[in-house]
Amino acid sequence: METHVFLAHAWLKQRDDYLVAGSAAGDLMLFHGGEFVTRLSASPGPGKAVHSLTATTKGLLCGLSDNTVAMFSVILSDSGDATSPNTHSEEEAGSSPVPQEDHFLEDAAEILTLQRLIRVDTGAGYVATIAVSPNEDVIVVTTSNTQLLTFPYQIHTSGVHSSAPATVPVVDESASVAVSAANVGGVPGAATSDATVTQSEDVEYVVTSFHQPSDPSTNNGPPGGANGGVAGGLLHVTGMDVCVRKPLLVTCGLDRTVRVWNYIDRTCEVAKRFNEEAFSVACHPSGLHLLVGFADKLRLLNILMDDIRSFKELPVKACRECQFSTGGHLFMAVNGNTIQVFSLFTGELVATPRGHNGKVRSLFWNADDSSIVSAGLDGAVYHWDLDEAKREAEFVQKGVSYYSALCNREGTAIYAVGGDRLLKEIEVPSSQLTKEFLCDATLGQLVLSGSQRLLFGAGAEPDRPGAIRAFKFPLTGESTEFQCLSAPVTRLRVSFDDQFLFAAGEDGAVCIFEVRDKEGRPTRTTGKDGEISLSAASVGGGFAGGSSYHHDGLGGHGGSMATFSEEILVTKSDLEEKNTLMLELKNKVDELMLHNEYQLRLKDMTYNENLKDLTEKFTHEIELEKNKYELLREDKNDIEMEYEEKIKQLEEHHLQQMQETEAAYQQKNMKEVERYQEVLTQREAQCLHWKSEQQRLVTTHDKYVADVTEDFEQRLNEDRQLRMQMEEEKDELGREYRETVAQVEADVDEEIETLKKKYEDKLQAEREATLRFKGENGIMKKKFSALQKDIEDQRDQIKLLLEKEKELIEAIKQLEKEIQALKREIRARDETIGEKEKRIYDLKKKNQELEKFKFVLDYKIKELKRAIEPRENEIADMKAQIKEMDQELELFHKSNAQLDVLIGEQRQRINALQKAIAGHRQILSDQQTSMRRFRCDLHECVRHLQSPKELALQVAQLYNKYVTTDDGPSAGSGGDVEAEIQLEYARQKQYLEKSVHVLKRKYAADAQEHQRENLRATSDNMLLIREINDIRSALLAAKNNLQMERATMATASLGTSAMNQEKTHGSRTLAVGGDPDVLVARQRTEIDELRRAVKALEDKLVSGSTTSRSGEVFPRQRTEIDELRRAVKALEDKLVSGSTTSRSGEVFPPIGRAVDG
């Protein structure tokens, strides 16, 4: 055992305390109880090291060194039966006797049998780990090439199943390398000597294919080797770039592959392996082209639908940095310390900025593609102007290696990081260092967000994990660090919409961060500064074997997702192949549809015949059942008649019993009523007794009060005390009297209610008993009828079951005949399937020959492309001619501009002439009007021809009015007169407008004042109405008290007047009135008068609120209302004192006065 190198072990689940261990020599060793038992005969053998073992209830899974998974089953019994997927071997092993266990130890070398071999990857490597789902239907494996694959757990016949994963394949550039089957059999002692190589499509990537390690032996050959040794390979992701118009991320690595990822859908869209290692990659903003720097050349590639194809090669070797311009029409590449700028469409060298003495490590385009920023290991950071091919700014610091540099959108500052662990801000064009911040680690990459609110840096310390550092921009020194990779970060990019941040490192992983604003604002803004956080939960998984990839991490970012373009490049040959394939599949579908329709028609015919037979049979059975139903219905009617007669007799009996019980309870009720009348008479006698007692107490109290009044003049203080004591005693006696009356009434009412409730409960119980008896009788009838029906139904069911048994026996015979026919049909179809499989095999061979022919055609296409160069030269000459024509067109544009200026001047002259003409026309019209006036005046003068004096006077007036020494002054005086009239008119108009404006303001102020006064009046009116409503409620209360007083006075005796002799005024009023009804009538008249007064006040208030705003009416009305309030208050006080102290007639006058209020 010391010579063996064990790589994996697993405990068998079918046997207790049994362990299987795998060695580097390909041996499977069996251990029991910690002791070696034997070497298993099913061991893979030399050259196939066992790197992983996993035990299941179905058997044992073994991961081998050639990316192969071997599935073994475990033998449980002497007969050699293996475990099935649906049985548990532990129970069988536990139930087996001890001799069987001994026999098992003797044949332990044959415990495992190989059931299936499946190759999970065509490349070199080994299966590192194996995991099985809980229900053991899916297997997931990881390989040494950092791939994560899955396939179903199915045991087939022994053989090697070579498969390629079903997701996006990695296209090889050579396109002629055939994948050969692994050498599995032929090893002495191996159990796979008779294994056949078959194809399987069960293996799939769990997510997608990841970057693989490079070949440790050489950097020029293909990855992996014949020996399968991949230990020591590098996983570096050397290049990464993000697209602008599509959600694409492009990566390249030392595994010689270029991969295009969709970071929204988390899939690898295209991947291709080249013959050389790729050191850098850049993606065109349109997402249709790639720029990849290889060891010997720089290639321009097209991204097709399922391939990446080269269309131009440039002689730039070992290009470590390349970058497309912002507009995409230019790109630049680095070869050592030389920077070259090319045109994308022509491939010509546009500029070669020279100045770096060391390797250039960083390139950056500004926003308008007019300048670039470069940084190198020579300690120089340059800002280049491409138009003039010169340096605008430079910052050189010897001894410091700069790894990354960029500038802001305005181009006024450069930010650089290097080996001195400092983040520097350099002003452009003065090249002065304005800011400098110390970082804890060396930063190797810098990225500025499009919104210019965050600056991201990536750590590049060797042998330390790579971290992302987010700086607040403009730089203040504040930063936040996020851990992401286990090795230094090689590339750092941010998406165009600032939603995602991408980081690639030397561990072969690409991490995707989601950039979120903590305040919920969109990140692609140019507004105020806000804090931005990187959501660690949304980190996309690495593309290496040990990294994770979250499927739901990229969907919940804040802000709106940018709309991406969907254009793709497809070659004409691919489209034609797709169309032909679609036509073939369409023809196959049509053939299958015709065949299925024919089969359906045959089945319909057979089913229709069977349906006819069944309908005839069931119609006959239905007629028989109808006859039986008629007989049963007649029997049912007879039974119903019998039970109806019995029910009538029982109802009559119950009626007699109910009448007897009702008569008995009626007599009891009469007795209780008589008793109730006696109790009422007793209550009335008690009431009379208590009233007499009350009168006696009142008379004694009055006598005592008279004695006290006589002694009041002599001993005033003592009489007051005695009077207070007697009044308290009177109140106590009154309370006792009221309490005794209330208790007696309550006791009598309670006793009556208890008796009434008692006999009502008894009556209700008797009624419920009668109803219960009726219900039980009905239930018994229903049960009897239900039992009768159940007996009849069971008899019918027995007959039906017997008949169905006969029918089922006949159906079984017919189905057995159909099974035989179907078996014969299956044999015939198996033969046809075998012939079609042979035909498919022949077609596959033809397809391989066509692929070879396709390779020849591709070579001819490349030669034809080389012949296109003369045409391109012609195109360049045509472009030169176009430039000359553009210059001529510019001259024409200049001449047209001069002509436009001349036209504008001529138009101004025309406008001036038109104004002069209008002035002359105005003068002419004025002269014509003056001539008309002169004619009119002349006509008036002609009338005085008969009187010379008046004629001379009129002529002199005409002369003074129209004739002057010069025509000019007369016209000027007329113009002055009209000007004065216009000025006077304007002055009057302005004065009137000012007066109107002042009146409007006065009107607005008066309206507001009127509105305020009106609101104040309405509020006062509302308060008065509310007080009137309160007075009315007090009036109702007074009315109620009045009615109560009248009721008490009607029951009182004639001696009530003697009780109130101390109230002299009240006694006189009662003597004068003679009768309380007269006093009530007087008080009613007073109430009516006061109501009329209140109505008049309300009318005054309404009229005052609508006609006046001065408020002069309200003070008098308020005083009247206050008097009414005081009267109501006195009324309430008198009512309270009158109801508690006495019942004399003195109460009525204030009642009348208060009620009027």
Automatic annotation (TrEMBL):
Keyword Coiled coil in annotation: yes
Where are the WD-type repeats located? Answer: 353-394
Which segments carry the region annotation Disordered?
81-100, 1136-1157
Q: Which UniProt keywords apply?
A: Cell projection, Cilium, Coiled coil, Flagellum, WD repeat
Q: Which SMART domains match?
A: WD40
Please tell me whether the keyword Coiled coil is annotated for this protein. yes
Q: What PANTHER family does its record include?
A: CILIA- AND FLAGELLA-ASSOCIATED PROTEIN 57
Q: What is the name of the protein in this document? A: Cilia-and flagella-associated protein 57
The organism's lineage?
Eukaryota, Sar, Stramenopiles, Oomycota, Peronosporomycetes
